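Re: that backbone. Tokens:
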């Protein structure tokens, strides 16, 4: 009797999930690349509660598989099904709490470094190109490799900043030092790269011992008393948080010499929020928040005013993310002994689902150039 009751309950929870997926032309146990193969009927009950979180959680738990998660997410978002389930009581509670608390305070600033950037270095070496650049590439030429596209992005940044030999460049959130090294080699500038990741700083200093890198919070920069001809910050502001946006731009302004340029490369949200997707917050970027243009505009009015240029790059991200995913799958045999299957599935879902989000333009990516 109990088994019959459980099967009946599974069937009751299965129907609404099937209907929701069908609205996005997704079938359960279908044969197309974006269809879902369900391995555990408990998947349906889990998806009835907080589906925006559970779709990633249940994938990590091995409850379903899909050959094209990027296409799956694209269809969910493009059809409106994903948007219908993105918000709910949990989202509004998290957003309300984040409006009260500073989730990106100086005390919390190192959490994302520990949770994401200070992971197994071999993972990043296997996933990224030889420049170890962990931001969106710029695919400007047919047949470009990932390394080609990353160097094209670095060149684009340097050209927009109009760097000249002998000038100085500050890179806020320098990662493994790729931009600083490229700008020094090809544009003859002197650079300072800062990061709050111990691993980033250690590796950057090892790879480029002739360059200057520091492990520090961006809020400590004014104490250095240094001015730079140009400042770049590439996909770092997502760790700053709305409560600190004004402080962040004030710091950049204090570090930038008169007449200098500041290039910000940032994810852009279609709505002003104080939290990100719960699954990404828990597993990928703790306390990360994607800014909206109104939030950036409000924070820059007192310092930079209107941007000199805005360049959309979001449609370059799917190719970047899927290239990282291919590399990670190829290098996984060397990582398996130190990382379990759940970790592998987490990274696969992160990279491929985010590719679908950018394809659907539910997130954008922009290079925003400011002049002082």
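Recovered sequence:
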């Amino acid at each position: 009797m109990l088994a019959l009751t459980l099967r009946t309950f599974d069937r009751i929870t299965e129907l609404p999930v099937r209907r929701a997926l069908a609205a996005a032309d997704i079938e359960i146990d279908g044969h197309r690349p974006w269809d879902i193969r369900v391995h555990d009927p408990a998947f349906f009950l889990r998806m009835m509660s907080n589906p925006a979180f559970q779709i990633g959680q249940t994938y990590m738990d091995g409850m379903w598989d899909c050959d094209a998660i990027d296409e799956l997410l694209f269809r969910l978002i493009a059809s409106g099904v994903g948007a219908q389930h993105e918000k709910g009581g949990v989202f509004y509670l998290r957003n309300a709490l984040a409006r009260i608390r500073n989730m990106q305070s100086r005390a919390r600033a190192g959490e994302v470094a520990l949770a994401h950037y200070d992971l197994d270095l071999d993972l990043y070496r296997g996933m990224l190109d030889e420049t170890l650049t962990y931001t969106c590439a710029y695919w400007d030429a047919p047949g470009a490799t990932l390394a080609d596209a990353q160097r094209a992005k670095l060149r684009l940044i340097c050209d927009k900043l109009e760097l000249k030999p002998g000038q100085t460049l500050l890179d806020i959130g320098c990662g493994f030092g790729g931009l600083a090294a490229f700008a020094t080699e090809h544009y003859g500038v002197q650079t300072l790269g800062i990061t709050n990741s111990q691993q980033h700083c250690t590796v950057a200093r090892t790879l480029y011992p002739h360059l200057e890198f520091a492990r520090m919070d961006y809020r400590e920069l004014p104490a250095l008393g240094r001015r730079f001809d140009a400042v770049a910050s590439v996909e770092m502001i997502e760790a700053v948080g709305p409560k600190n946006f004004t402080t962040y731009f004030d710091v950049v302004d204090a570090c930038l010499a008169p007449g200098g340029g500041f290039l910000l490369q940032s994810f852009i949200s279609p709505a002003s929020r104080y939290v990100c997707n719960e699954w990404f917050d828990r597993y990928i970027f703790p306390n990360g928040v994607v800014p909206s243009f109104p939030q950036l505009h409000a924070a820059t009015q007192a310092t930079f005013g209107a941007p000199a240029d805005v360049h959309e790059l979001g449609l370059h991200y799917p190719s970047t993310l899927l290239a990282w995913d291919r590399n990670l799958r190829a290098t996984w045999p060397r990582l398996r002994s130190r990382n379990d299957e759940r970790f592998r599935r987490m990274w696969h879902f992160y990279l491929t689902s985010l590719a679908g989000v950018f394809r659907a333009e539910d997130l954008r990516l922009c290079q925003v150039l400011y002049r002082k």
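Residues 107-351+362-371 form a domain with the Rossmann fold fold (CATH 3.40.50.150). The chain has two domains: 2-86, 107-351+362-371.
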